[in-house]
Design goal:
mainly alpha; 7 helices; 0% strand; globular
Length: 158
């Protein structure tokens, strides 16, 4: 029998082993860190918007009246609802408390913004919606108050 000893053959087999090894390392990356990063990132966007709304309330109501023109609700009510949601939900997201409902509420708001207010800003909205949908589906992750509460309840019922 002849043994094949080609430098190309040994490099190719080494490379083939590196790809699965790299994928295995990446798959062990904790999703709880991703969830935390997603929560903080999307919370920052909405919280800043909420701060802008309360910085000049008259201008905010005027925007809701003349530019946003939401169907079905008066401008002032829309401004109150938006400001409240944009200031409260991000705090909940950062804490990881009531993450799924907070993310779902912001996802609903993002949908309204996309459909009725700024449809041309779909690249931003799809980014926010993707993050929010991940949080609705997967939850806050291990680094959250939600997880602490779940552990507490599981110990109490066990």
């Amino acid at each position: 029998m002849f043994a094949v000893s080609s430098p190309h053959f040994s490099r190719a087999s080494q490379t083939e082993g590196l790809i699965p090894a790299a994928v295995a390392v990446l798959e062990r990356f904790p999703t709880s860190l991703l969830s935390l990063a997603f929560r903080v990132a999307v919370a920052t966007v909405f919280f800043r918007s909420g701060l802008t709304k309360i910085a000049s309330w008259d201008a905010t109501v005027a925007l809701f009246d003349m530019e946003y023109m939401l169907p079905f609700i008066p401008a002032e009510l829309g401004a109150y609802l938006a400001a409240t949601l944009e200031l409260a939900a991000p705090v909940l997201l950062v804490l990881g408390l009531l993450t799924r409902p907070a993310a779902a509420a912001l996802l609903g708001m993002t949908t309204v913004i996309q459909l009725f207010v700024y449809p041309e800003n779909w690249p931003d909205h799809i980014l926010w919606a993707s993050i929010l949908l991940y949080l609705v589906v997967r939850g806050a992750g291990a680094l959250s108050v939600d997880q602490l509460i779940a552990r507490w309840f599981s110990h109490r019922t066990a």
